[in-house]
Amino acid sequence: MSSVPIFRRSSPSSSGEGRAGIIDIGSNSIRLVIYDGPARIPAILFNEKVMAGLGKGVSRDGMIDPQAIERALVSLARFQRLSEQMGVPHPRTVATAAVREASNGRMFLDRVLDLGLQPELLSGEDEARSAGLGVLAAIPEADGIVGDLGGGSLELVRIGQGVVHETSSFPLGVLRLDAMKAKGPRAMGAVVAKALKKSGWVGRGKGLPFYMVGGSWRSLARVDMHLNDYPLPILHHYRMEQANAQHLVRVLAQLDRKRLRDVAGLSGSRIPMLKHGAALLSHVTRHLGASELIISAYGLREGLLYGGLTEFLRAQHPLIAATREEGRRQGRFVEHGDLLDRWIAPLFAGESAADALLRHASCLLADVGWRAHPEFRAERGLDTALHGNWVGVDARGRAMMAHALYVSFAGPGVDPIVERLCSPEDRAMAERWGLAIRLGQRLSGGVADALVASHVAIDAANLTLGLEPDNLTLYGEAVERRLKILAAAFGRAPKLTTRG
Questions:
Q1: Average pLDDT of 221-237?
Q2: What is the pTM (predicted TM-score) of this model?
Q3: 317-498 is a CATH 1.10.10.10 domain
C-alpha cells in the first residue's frame, strides 16, 4: 500500500472566506461535507452520508467486498458531481483504515481516481492527528485524550496547550467488535487492556477529560441525553461521568430496538453497535483513568481544515469568530458588538477569562433581535444563543449568553432550560451583562459615536455613567431608568458625570 500516490491541493480555507469540500471515505460510511463562510469557523452548507460498509469485508477476510466497492463508487460519483455544482470542483478526498488495510485498497483508489477525484490515503498517525486538531478547533482549551472511533480503527491522541502530542491508532473500530465479542464476554476487555499496555497508554489520561469523536460515540451520548431527560439536545460539549459508560452497557443490554427508536436523532444504522461501542468506551476510559467524557462534534474533517489555516486564523477563538459573523449578518452596525463589549468591560473587571469570553460573545449577538417583532425579540435573542450552531462553548455558557440576551431585550423571568443549565450565581452574572448591554444599546441607539464618547465605571458606592458635555442631551428618561436598574443589580447607586 505504500506505493499509493498521494495528491494534495491547497485548502481553499487557508485564508479569508470561501467554500471548501471534504469527502471522507471511512470504514463504515462515506461522507461529503461542503463548508462555506469564514475560514476559522465555516458553516456546513451541505452534508450527506452513505453507509457503504467498506470495512466489513476487511475485518473478515482482508479485502473490500466488490459490492461495497460498487456502492461506494456510485456515491463518490454523486459527491464529485455535487461538489462541482456547488463551486468546489476539487474536494479534498481522504481514505482511512479500511482502504489502508485492504489487500485491494490500491485498486479501489485507482477507481476513485478514474472518477476525477484525487484521494489521499491517511496513515493512522495522520488520522489521529487530524482528529486531535479537530477537537482543538472546537475546544481550544481542551487538555486531555481524544478518542476517535471509526469503523476500522480507534485513534487516541493526547492534546493540550493548543497542540497535538502523542498519537496512536488501534484496530478497534466498531466493525471489528462483533468478531471480538464472539470470542467470549471478556475478550474485548482483554484485547483493549493488552493494546493499551503495550503502547504505553494505561493511566495516561488519569484525571483528564476524554474527548469522544465519531458517530458511534455520539450515538451513545444521544442515548445518555434521553435517559437523563437532558434539556438541550446539542451534542457538542455534552459531558458525562466516566461511570456512565458502564451504566450504558447495562442499560443497553435491556433496551430493545423499538425503545431505542424513541431516542431523538439516533440513526437506526447505529443501533446494532451501541452495546459494543459502550463496552469499548468503558474499557478504554477505565484503563486511561479518564475523569469525565466530553463529546466533540468536530473531528477528522474539521481537523483537516484547521490544519490548513494560518497561525493568525487558528488563534481566533471559534465562539468569538462565529458570533461576530452572526452579528455582522443579523445586526445593524458591523462594529457595534466589539465596541459594546469594551464599553461595559469596566463593570466586570474581576471576571474569569472564560466568563469574559462569554460576555464578549453576548455583546456580539446583542443586535440579533432587531428584525423580529418587538414582542418576540427576547425570545429571538434567547434562541440564538441557546440553540445557535456554536462551538467553543458548553451548555452552561450557552445558557448564560441566552439569559444575557433575554434580559437585554427585556424578557421576563427565567427560561426553564436556562434555569436547569446554570446556577443562580451564573444567572445573576448574566443578568448584569444583559442590563449593561441594554443600557449601552439605549444610550447609543446601536451606533458607535455615543459609546466612544462615554464610559461606565463602578466603585464601592456608585455605578457611574460618564458623558462628554456635547453628548449630555443623550441622557434621556429611558437612559436614566436603565442606569438605575443596572446600578441596583450591582447594589450600587446610579451616578451621572460629565467630562470636558
A1: 94
A2: 0.91
A3: no
